[in-house]
Amino acid sequence: MLQQEMAAVVRKDFGKGAMRQLRMAGNTPAVLYGEGREVVALQLETLPLVKQLLKIQRRNAVITLNIEGDSSRHVLIKELQTDPVRDTLIHADFYEIDLDKPRQFTVDLVVSGSAKGVDLGGILEVAATKVRVEGAPLDIPDTIDVDVTNLAIGDNFLASNLELPGNVKMLTSGDVVCVTIVAPSVA
């Protein structure tokens, strides 16, 4: 799983006017919460935050949030709010996690290799692009490889055939078809 570091400062001002001034000064308001934890209001510099968010866009990532005057905390991005007209970042919600506690994640599948069935005229169809897995956050792979090299026409690659790290458990049903090679239609 990807790991990023971000710097934050505890926010002391609240309200609509204070948030507007905060954004005009180049900062983004944020909130940090978690199970059994007190909610902490934060502010982060907008430009570095957006650059880091672009690096982890649509991927699973554990963020180490270094809070000024406090300890660092491991978090996941829970929600990002953007202005619908200007498409600028308005607010971020972070959820604190325990790195040793198993959690559920959705992981992208990446098809690799050239299938034998495609070389013989078959058509490769991707039926699933993601699977659900469970494990400690740092044990979760960024993507899972689907090697289709040995697939012939009529063969399927099932979720049960995916190779996972030993301490990660598949939650998606094993009989879910990820990739199939179908015979070309005769016109």
> Structural class, please?
mainly beta
Overall average residue pLDDT: 87
Unreliable spans are: none
| CATH first level of the largest domain | Mainly Beta
Would you give an account of this structure?
Helix content is 12%, strand content 45%. The chain folds into two domains: 2-96, Ribosomal Protein L25, Chain P (Beta Barrel), CATH 2.40.240.10; 103-182, Ribosomal protein L25, C-terminal domain (RNA Polymerase Alpha Subunit, Chain A, domain 2), CATH 2.170.120.20. It has a six-stranded mixed β-barrel. A four-stranded mixed sheet has the order 10-7-9-12, with no helix packed on it. The chain contains three helices and 13 strands. With 187 residues, the chain is mainly beta. It is elongated and about 65 Å long.
Keywords summarizing the entry:
187 residues; mainly beta; Ribosomal Protein L25, Chain P; RNA Polymerase Alpha Subunit, Chain A, domain 2; 2 domains; six-stranded mixed beta barrel; 13 strands; 45% strand; elongated
Topology:
Elements: E1 2-10, H1 16-24, E2 27-33, E3 40-45, H2 46-55, E4 61-67, E5 72-82, E6 89-96, E7 103-112, H3 116-119, E8 123-126, E9 130-135, E10 143-147, E11 156-158, E12 169-170, E13 177-182
Quick synopsis:
The protein is mainly beta and 187 residues long.
